[in-house]
Amino acid sequence: MTIIESTAEINLPIAQVYQFLADLNNHQQLMPENIYNWASTADTASFTIQNMAKLAIHISERVENEKLIAVPTEKPPFDLSLEWTVKDNGNGTTTAKHVISADLNMMMKMLASGPLQKLADYQTKKLKEILG
């Protein structure tokens, strides 16, 4: 399993950060330009990654003010999970961590791990920009 992580410190209480992340409708704001055909509800999202694949995900697990896990609703080219965890820093700020777990063979790992890391980094950066 390939694990890709990115972290950001957000200047908001944990409940506000979790509330934003818990609604997949908000995740469109976290996506780079190469993501299009976005459609979402609070629990599901589908989108196309330019020159790659169409992906549909749903929330498989929610733990209030702790974590949120999304997995594909249809069989993807490889097993994948997207996890956001939030941790209260005790000073009114929250650490948000985005973890992408992908079951990649060596060839796919060489091709996909760079773009997946860029995606994770982009999403945590955007989360910090949007929430402050």
Structure, explained:
This protein has helices at 14-22, 106-131; strands at 2-10, 35-40, 44-49, 54-63, 67-72, 80-88, 94-102. It has 132 residues and is of the alpha+beta class. It has a single domain (2-131), classed as START domain (Alpha-D-Glucose-1,6-Bisphosphate, Chain A, domain 4, 2-Layer Sandwich). The protein has a 7-stranded antiparallel sheet with strand order 1-7-6-5-4-3-2, covered by helices on one side. The chain is globular, with a radius of gyration of 14 Å. The termini are far apart. Pfam families: Polyketide_cyc2.
Distance between the termini: 32 Å
Output mean pLDDT.
94
H/E element order: EHEEEEEEH
Number of domains: 1
Main sheet properties: 7 strands, antiparallel
What's the layout of helices and strands?
Layout: E1 2-10, H1 14-22, E2 35-40, E3 44-49, E4 54-63, E5 67-72, E6 80-88, E7 94-102, H2 106-131
Write a short abstract of this structure:
The chain is of the alpha+beta class and 132 residues long. Helix content is 27%, strand content 42%.
